[in-house]
Design a protein that fits this description.
Blueprint: H1 2-6, H2 9-22, E1 38-43, E2 50-54, H3 55-76, H4 82-101, H5 108-135
Antiparallel strand pairs: 1-2
Helix pairs in contact: 2-3, 3-5, 4-5
Length: about 140
């Protein structure tokens, strides 16, 4: 159960992003998939042109949902611990290191995911501090 509730959802997003870029050599599923691969196309009524969602936009949509899940998990879970916040910071630091060190991570999609990961980490930290302040009063 730790892998679902205890780990940051951005860990899974980071692993999927790395698998997409590194796995094309080793994993058959990812052989023809890039960030520009189309996932879904819908033609709008009135001749407005196609509405296209690519893999890069899918990562951003999933990242937005993950950010919502992480903030709500930190705000509502009674057994939310400092280890989850620490893991979120570690994941955010890995995002930053990859962004500056690896060429395939130097794109706007990865930068936005990195910012979302830092918002997750700092938001969890702030929520945890506020909860601790309400539990412990010093006069």
């Amino acid at each position: 159960m730790f892998f679902i509730t205890g780990m940051s959802t951005f860990t899974w997003i980071l692993l999927a992003y790395v698998a997409l870029h590194v796995g094309h050599e080793h994993i058959g599923i990812f052989k023809d998939i890039t960030l520009d691969s189309m996932v879904w196309t819908h033609y709008l009524a009135g001749g407005g042109g196609p509405f296209i969602i690519r893999v890069s936009e899918l990562f951003l949509i999933i990242g937005s949902i993950a950010l919502f899940i992480e903030v709500s998990k930190a705000a509502t879970t009674k057994n939310f611990s400092g280890s989850e916040t620490l893991l979120s910071f570690v994941v955010a630091i890995v995002f930053v290191v990859l962004f500056f060190m690896v060429s395939w991570a130097q794109n706007p999609t990865f930068l936005i995911l990195t910012l979302m990961s830092f918002i997750d980490a700092t938001g969890g930290f702030i929520i945890e501090l506020n909860a601790a302040q309400h539990d412990f009063h010093v006069k």
